[in-house]
Design a protein that fits this description.
- The complex is a heterodimer of chains A (about 1050) and B (about 270).
- By secondary structure, chain A is mainly alpha-helical.
- Chain A has 50 helices and 2 strands.
- The N terminus and C terminus of chain A are likely disordered.
- A two-stranded antiparallel ribbon of chain A has the order 1-2.
- In chain A, a hairpin with a 2-residue loop joins β1 and β2.
- With about 270 residues, chain B is α+β, with helices and mostly antiparallel strands.
- Chain B is about 65% helix and about 10% strand.
- Chain B has a 5-stranded antiparallel sheet with strand order 4-3-2-1-5, with helices on one face.
- In chain B, α4 packs parallel to α6.
- In chain B, about 35% of the residues are buried.
- The chains are: A mainly alpha (about 1050), B alpha+beta (about 270).
- Chains A and B meet through α20 and α22 of A and α7, α9 and α11 of B.
């Protein structure tokens, strides 16, 4: 066996960090064992100054290591007050406190202020900074400081900085090994050994150095290793003088060297020869651990585990070598792998037993996981050789191993050594990938990465989170625990204000844990949160997941109800009905659904009502059904007094709307009267049965309306009288005429409604501006312009008009315009523009104003006034254009401008002004053409405007003798609208234009055949530049054309 | 009396059906029938000429004395003699894949759901892949795996199937299958599936996703899956390089060279 074969991937020397973990533990134990009893027995005042200061400083250091700077500060303050002369050391301690919190900039600032950058005190501070960089994984920065320091002190360090020197050199060596720079690490160890130190520390450093040299030797060809071997043997010989844990380590290293030299037998002999001493150390550590629970960790330092592992590896490799060579005897291989049995008794151990022992007896050591892996490979090797072994690992032993291994990671995590904890967890998780403790370890591993300062650690956190969710989310055994761990991380991120991570991890939970008991509740919680924030789309996505993935969950019904709320708000009544039907089905399957079922049915009926007259009969039936249920078996749906009261309210409401719906049914015609009569009787019943219901006054108002329609004026009046008597303060009573008119309007009895509205202004009723506005609007729509204008005037005169003034002015302007009172309309609308420039009705007002000016202009005989009026008309339209946001809106306005210009042309022509008429005609034609040329024909919503621009503009081109353009327009029109009703007319124009164009030398334009369809290229493809409206130069913009012309006139 | 009458009618119908089946079974040369033994759940064994009937998802076994149908769900194990041409055809896939295709196709058809179709299918898929006929590889894998028990589909077979789907750019189908395996497969299959899934992401330029859900996960948490490990490390390195994270890429390179110094990926980098 060669050294190379041993030092491959299975080498027991590969994990350097694990060894340092042990060293650190040892170190801490020493501190505890030394410091605690002294402190307790002697007390601080009894100690000499230096010793006490050392002890206190050590305490401060430990507190800082534990990231407890506040406590450390208190101890330091105490030291300072007692011995002010130790200030320099204290300063370093203070910096260490800052470094523990990662405040590097602050430390650099402090160091920079030091007057002498090369004195020992400053170097101590710099070394503390280097140590800080190392602790936070900033190796590059740390290396710069360490290198410059050791360059400054090539020899034995001065006494004043001895401790810093030693500590930094040791840390530097560890860091270099971590970075894979083993040669440099060896030099750092050599530096460290130049310092003064206690004997145990020197032995520790020497052993670490020897172990490092083993690695260095492994990396070299066999003929270049001797210098290391010599040095290693020298160190180990020195270590052999004292039988402590380093003694055991030295034996392992020596055995390893022998294996590397090919002396396997020598290695085995060495271990065998010292086995009793190794066992003694092992026993002592075990006894100590047994006697003191706090010292349980000492067993981890036992050299036996490592020795067993080493021997196992030696035997396994030897067996593999024999198998590979094909020359080994079967019995020899078996002996190496499983030991030897005589008379049924095991007389020697093989690799299998050694690995098993290292694994089971020393579950907390770094060798256990590797031993377990080797145990498996040995079993595989035996199986391939046809040998079945049945080594029994007791379940409790295995559990202990698992627990021990995971505890290693937890201990490091608790010490906030996150990078080391992560390494340990990964090692253990590869050994025990699936189990309850694996899941919590995965969660801790995520935390390690999140808290790690190493660059790029977050991607590892994402990776582990994803694995945890995906691998265990649908696993029946582990899903619950995995989901809980994911939620735990979410809470942690929330506490740490890591919103992005929190959201991501919740999304993982929702995506991978549909079966988790908390999933539905969490979705509901998230949905409600978004709902309360008004983010209905996001809320909907959560509720929908419950609807689809958590049928039957406790929150299922609530989620459906919320979805229905959102759909109702969006006026998606069809969707609302579908969801509510699901809700009803779910509630009906419940033992005692109570009021919830009644409410859901009520909502369905109401949604049908909201769908309008097409579904009014269905709504009527639904309300009828509800009335029947509540009247006959209402008790079934009342689990409490509150539910009973709620159901009573619903019954009253259902009766009201049942009547409302019946009163609106229009088919079959011969039954309409009967339905209305039935509606009236239901309303009477409602008032009689529930006189105190909120629906009772409205029912009487409704009753009055229906009876009016049924041509029972006396009964109708009687109903309204009852309304005023029984509910005098109700809004219905105070506005009975208005309500009656409104109800008539709703029933399609417009004429009767208008009549009543007129009465409102003649009488003394106290109607609100909103009611008057509504009435005025209806009167306007009914063509009652004078009365409507009177209504709006009444609002404007009212002191309470407030917010209604804008609308009243606009509608008054419209009423006056429609009445033909154009000057007055212009005045009112101009006032509106001035008074409410930001009014939502300003666009409508401006358009009306433009129309009014144009209309006046058309009638004006005075040339200059006519021009002014048309210019005002176009300016009003321009004001509207500034407020448009979409292309269709702009195209629509441009069409209107073109039409105004055409009207002007006609007016000029009628007035005998041919030149001006031609000029306006040309401007109108240009405006139409601008729509055609500068808009995007590919947008479907633009098509109607294109069609209008072609159809209205082309005759103007022909009138202006622009035959080529007219011909082109006709061709394009027929391509775009081959089946439009104007197509045949356009064909006539086409032929005419073609003939005229040919006469002027334009050829080659072929009209598509009738009915032919051709995809129209976007205008952008046709026009080479400035194809979009946004890019049209200002001087070509349609509205500017008009203004320019007016400018000329002025 | 009524019950007795009904029972006798049923018995008569069954007898007629039995005779009918006998005539049908006996009158035709059965394609795809081979000698073998079916072990039912519960331990009963039936030996005879076995044929798979895909339309009803059951086996038809013709013994010396009777013909019987055994539903797939009732079958614990099926043992059929190895097809004579199989071993030779498999050997030829390695060196002359084109020449093996006809024999393997014949075995896949003749041994449908009779143990050896999976083996032959796996090698036929490889032969197709080697002769640049990825769509055919997908088709044969779909065919032999359609009714097979998930536990009978080896990681090896899955890998070829996924390679074929990847080659055909059937990414959605591939991703769905891979995700199913990642959620519930054994560790080796999971590791392979993760890497293959990451290949899709990498092909689409989603390097970070490829790392998080695939390569890096496999490198870090599936260290014992040695068959796929070098590929995962190598591709993780490539992704880190693409993301400009050179220090991580260097770390991956170091791991690859240390653990698999002789692997082709390592040799490529030396």
């Amino acid at each position: 066996m060669t050294g190379k074969s041993f030092c491959g991937k299975n080498s027991f020397m590969t994990d350097r960090n694990a060894f340092f973990r042990q060293s650190m533990k040892y170190y801490i134990w020493i501190i505890l064992l030394m410091a605690c009893p002294v402190g307790l027995v002697i007390g601080q005042d009894a100690l000499p100054k230096e010793e006490w200061v050392q002890q206190e400083l050590k305490y401060v250091e430990e507190l800082q290591n534990l990231r407890m700077p506040d406590y450390a500060d208190k101890i330091m303050a105490n030291i300072k007050s007692k011995y002010p002369d130790v200030a320099a050391r204290m300063k370093v301690m203070e910096l260490q406190g800052l470094l523990a919190m990662g405040k590097f900039d602050k430390v650099l600032e402090v160091i920079k202020k030091e007057p002498d950058q090369k004195n020992e005190a400053t170097w101590a501070m710099k070394l503390a900074l280097g140590d800080g960089y190392y602790a936070w994984g900033k190796y590059k920065e740390a290396k710069e400081i360490y290198d410059s320091f050791f360059a400054a002190y090539p020899g034995v360090p001065p006494q004043a900085i001895n401790d810093f020197y030693l500590d930094s050199a040791h840390k530097y060596a560890q860091m270099l090994m971590r970075m894979g720079e083993n040669e440099a690490a060896l030099q750092a160890y050599n530096n460290a050994l130049k310092a003064q130190m206690e004997r145990y520390k020197r032995r520790q450093l020497q052993i670490e150095r020897a172990e490092l040299m083993v690695n260095l030797a492994e990396a070299r060809p066999e003929n270049q290793r001797q210098e290391y071997y010599t040095e290693i043997e020298k160190i180990c010989t020195e270590i052999f003088w004292v039988q402590d844990i380093w003694f055991g380590k030295a034996i392992v290293i020596m055995a390893h060297v022998k294996v590397m030299k090919g002396d396997v037998a020598g290695a085995m002999k060495l271990v065998d020869g010292y086995w009793s001493q190794l066992k003694d150390i092992d026993n002592q550590l075990k006894e100590q651990a047994k006697a003191d629970d706090d010292a349980a960790g000492l067993v981890e330092l036992s050299p036996v585990a490592e020795c067993r592992y080493l021997v196992g590896v030696i035997m396994e490799n030897e067996a593999n070598r024999l198998i590979a060579s094909g020359k080994g005897e079967r019995s020899q291989i078996i002996k190496l792998l499983v030991g030897e049995q005589k008379e049924g008794k095991q007389v020697s151990s093989g690799a299998l037993q050694h690995f098993l022992n290292a694994f089971v007896q020393y579950p907390d050591t770094q060798w256990a996981p590797a031993a377990a892996e080797h145990f498996k490979t040995v079993k595989d090797t035996l199986a391939k050789a046809g040998i079945k072994v049945n080594p029994k690992i007791p379940a409790d032993a295995m559990a202990k191993v698992r627990a021990g291994q995971f505890q290693q990671g937890q201990t490091l995590f608790n010490r906030q050594e996150y990078d080391k904890a992560a390494e340990t967890y990964i090692s253990v998780l590869n050994l025990f990938p699936e189990g309850m403790d694996s899941i919590s370890a995965l969660s801790r591993l995520v935390e390690c990465y999140v808290k790690s300062q190493e660059e790029g650690a977050k991607i590892y956190a994402d990776m582990v989170e994803g694995y945890l969710a995906e691998r265990f989310g649908k696993n029946k055994t582990y899903m619950l625990e995995a989901g809980n761990q994911i939620l735990r991380l979410a809470v942690l991120y929330d506490e740490e204000k890591m919103t992005e991570r929190k959201d991501a991890v919740y999304n993982l939970f929702f995506a991978h844990f549909p079966g988790h008991p908390k999933a539905a509740g969490m979705l509901m919680q998230f949905g409600n949160q978004k709902f309360s924030e008004g983010k209905t789309d996001e809320a909907m996505s959560y509720y929908t997941r419950i609807e689809q993935e958590h049928v039957g969950a406790p929150v299922y019904a609530s989620a459906l109800s919320r979805i229905a709320d959102i759909l109702e708000k969006a006026k998606d009544y069809v969707g609302e009905i579908k969801i509510l039907s699901k809700l009803v089905k779910n509630l009906e399957a419940q033992h005692e659904p109570g009021h919830a079922l009644i409410k859901a049915k009520w909502r369905i009926a109401y949604a049908y009502k909201q769908l309008g007259d097409k579904y009014i009969a269905v709504a009527a039936n639904k309300f009828s059904e509800l009335c029947k249920i509540l009247s006959t078996e209402g008790a079934k749906y009342e689990k409490s007094a509150e539910e009973k009261e709620a159901n009573t309210k619903i019954l009253a409401g259902a009766m009201f709307y049942k009547a409302y719906c019946f009163s609106r049914v229009t088919q079959p015609e011969d039954k309409v009267k009967a339905y209305k009569t039935h509606a009236a009787s239901v309303l009477e019943e409602l008032v009689a049965k529930f006189p105190d219901s909120q629906f009772a006054p409205a029912a009487l108002g409704q009753l009055g309306t229906i009876l009016t329609v049924l041509e029972k004026p006396d009964d109708a009046r009687n109903a309204l009288v009852r309304l005023k008597q029984k509910y005098p303060k109700s809004p219905e009573a105070m506005n009975s005429t208005f309500i009656l008119a409104g109800n008539l309007l709703n029933m399609g009895r417009k004429q009767e409604a208008v009549k009543l509205f007129k009465e409102m202004f003649e009488g003394e009723g106290t109607y609100s501006p909103g009611q008057i506005l509504t009435a005025g609007k209806e009167l306007l729509n009914a063509g009652e312009y004078d009365t409507a204008a009177e209504a709006f005037e009444r609002i404007l005169a009212s002191k309470e008009s407030g917010a209604w003034q804008e609308k009243a002015m606009l509608m008054k302007g419209e009423a006056l315009f429609k009445k033909g009172n154009l000057e007055e309309a212009i005045k009112v609308l101009t006032d509106l523009q001035g008074k409410f420039p930001k009014s939502s009705g300003i666009v409508e007002a401006s358009e009306l104003l433009s129309e009014a000016y144009a209309e006046l202009g058309s009638k004006e005989q005075n040339e200059d006034k006519r021009l002014d009026l048309f210019n005002n008309s176009i300016l009003a339209m321009k004001a509207v254009r500034q407020r448009t946001t979409t292309l269709p809106e702009r195209a629509n306005l441009d069409l209107k401008v073109a039409r105004i210009l055409l009207r002007r042309s006609n007016a000029e022509r009628d007035a005998g002004k041919a030149d001006r008429a031609a000029e306006a005609l040309a401007q109108s034609a240009m405006t139409y053409q601008s729509i055609i040329l500068f808009s995007d024909a590919a947008q479907p919503e633009m098509k109607p405007y294109f069609e209008a621009a072609y159809y209205e503009g082309t005759p103007l081109l022909m009138e202006l003798d622009k035959w080529e353009d007219a011909l082109e327009n006709c061709v394009q029109y027929l391509k775009m609208f081959p089946e439009h009703q104007h197509a045949s007319e356009i064909r006539v124009w086409y032929n005419k234009a073609k003939t005229r164009a040919s006469a002027t030398g334009v050829e080659g334009v072929i009209a598509p055949a009738e009915g032919a369809k051709e995809e129209i290229a976007p205008v952008a493809d046709v026009i080479e530049t400035n194809s979009s409206i946004e890019s049209v130069p200002a001087e070509l913009s349609p509205t500017n054309v008009s203004v320019e012309s007016t400018g000329e006139q002025q | 009396m009524k019950n007795i009458h009904i029972s006798s009618v049923r018995i008569r119908r069954k007898m007629i059906m039995g005779v009918f089946m006998f005539l049908i079974m006996g009158s035709v040369t059965v394609f795809g029938a081979v000698q073998g033994t079916i072990t039912k759940i519960g331990g009963d064994k039936i030996s005879g000429e076995i044929r798979w009937q895909g339309s009803t998802k059951e086996y038809v076994v013709v013994t010396d004395r009777f013909t019987v149908q055994v539903a797939l769900k009732d079958v614990a194990e099926i043992k059929v003699n190895e097809p004579p041409k199989l071993r030779d055809a498999v050997n030829r896939v390695k060196t002359q894949p084109q020449s093996a295709i006809a024999d393997l196709e014949e075995i896949v058809n003749s041994y449908s759901m009779l143990q050896w179709d999976l083996v032959a299918g796996r090698w036929l898929a490889e032969a197709y892949m080697k002769t640049k006929q990825a769509p055919k590889a997908v088709a044969v894998c779909d065919k032999v795996m359609m009714d097979a028990k998930p536990t009978d589909i080896t990681g090896d077979m899955s890998k070829i199937y996924w390679d074929a789907l990847f080659e055909c750019k059937l990414y959605d189908k591939l991703r769905a299958d891979l995700t199913k395996r990642v959620e519930a497969g054994d560790r080796e299959t999971v590791a392979i599936a993760q890497v293959k899934r990451a290949d899709i992401d990498m092909a689409n330029g989603n390097y970070e996703k490829a790392l998080i859900d695939g390569y890096l996960r496999t490198v870090t948490l599936f260290k014992t899956e040695k068959s796929i490990r070098p590929e995962a490390i190598y591709k993780a390195m490539k992704c880190f390089e693409a993301l400009g994270q050179q220090s991580h890429a260097a770390k991956m390179k170091k791991i690859l060279l240390a653990e698999f110094p002789e692997h082709p990926y390592s040799k490529e980098m030396k």
